[in-house]
Specification:
By secondary structure, this protein is α/β, with parallel strands linked by helices. The protein has 2 domains: 170 residues, P-loop containing nucleotide triphosphate hydrolases (Rossmann fold, 3-Layer(aba) Sandwich); 69 residues, no CATH class. 27% of the residues lie in helices and 27% in strands. The chain has 7 helices and 11 strands. Strands 5-6-7-3-8-9 form a 6-stranded mixed sheet, with helices on both faces. It has a 3-stranded antiparallel sheet with strand order 2-1-4, with helices on one face. The longest helix is centred in the last third of the chain and has 14 residues. The structure holds adenosine-5'-triphosphate and magnesium ion. Magnesium ion binds next to α1.
Length: 256
């Protein structure tokens, strides 16, 4: 086994607020790990930890055998939210090209023909080539999301971190993205946060359930006991396109 991400007894605090508690997790190469859990459960924090954007308050984290943030170009990250600087007029092409920058070549980097080739190829693959000269502030939510995925992929990372990558996508775009991810997963480790239970259970190889602590890490087999533990409330599970409730309502639940 080749472990690419390793967390050992990790706590994360934001000031006095604890976001993650005693997380121990090993992720193997070429895994496709889905992370589910309620809002505020620490899913984005976990991805940021692996991306090196959040530091653990205690415990240890290794990514590709090194501390996080020390593997330039090897981690692709699609954040849940992308703060657009509206003063800065970037085209789609320029935005994706910035994915070819790493901490080591940030300054005085001139894009090479190889950079442009990689960008053109990824834009074609994600069906956004026709948008290449559009300003990113003009894009729709779903178009923007595909641009961000392209930007994360253009360096051909070893590990891809996706924070709700299909949240704004229509059904066709979603299945297109998942077929691309399946392809990429042949030689790339993918860690994906999603609220979409149907997608999670049918596309990932393993599953982690997170609500400050890790409730489960194993095969993607969801059951009512597990979901009840993680969410503490009923959850709709969409299986094969058919929604069904996997947990009974709590007696005290207020229907809205
Ligand atoms: N920069 C920050 N400063 C202070 N608190 C933060 C910060 N980022 C996250 N938090 C808090 O940490 C907790 C975990 O947040 P996180 O964004 O990781 O949750 P999440 O599982 O991704 O939620 P969601 O499903 O809503 O995206 C939340 O209570 C959140 O308010
Ligand atoms: Mg989040």
């Amino acid at each position: 086994m080749n472990t690419v991400v390793q967390l050992e007894n990790v706590d994360v605090y934001y000031g006095n607020m604890q976001a993650l508690c005693n997380i121990t997790l090993n992720i193997e190469a070429r895994d496709f790990l889905g992370i589910i859990g309620p809002n505020g459960g620490g899913k984005s924090t976990l991805l940021k930890l692996i991306a090196g954007l959040v530091t653990p308050s205690s415990g240890k984290v290794w990514v590709l055998g090194r501390p996080p943030g020390h593997a330039p170009g090897k981690i692709g990250y699609v954040p849940q939210r992308f703060n657009l600087n509206r003063e800065f007029p970037f085209s789609v092409l320029e935005t994706i090209l910035t994915g070819r920058l790493t901490k080591n070549n940030l300054f005085l980097h001139r894009y090479t023909a190889q950079d442009e080739l990689a960008v053109n190829e990824i834009m074609r693959r994600l069906d956004i080539y026709d948008l290449k000269d559009r300003q990113i502030i003009q894009l729709s939510g779903g178009q923007m999301q595909r641009v961000l995925i392209a930007r994360a992929l253009v360096m051909e990372p070893e590990i891809l971190l996706l924070d709700e990558p299909t949240a704004c996508l229509d059904a066709n775009s979603k299945s297109h993205i998942y077929s691309i991810l399946k392809d990429l997963n042949q030689d790339m480790t993918i860690i994906m946060v999603s609220h979409d239970m149907g997608v999670i259970s049918s596309h990932v190889k393993s599953l982690a359930c997170l609500n400050m602590t890790m409730f489960y890490h194993g095969l993607p087999e969801l059951n009512d006991t597990l979901l009840g533990q993680v969410y503490g409330c009923p959850v709709e599970l969409i299986a094969h396109g058919v929604p069904h409730r996997v947990l009974p309502h709590h007696q005290e639940e207020v229907h809205v």
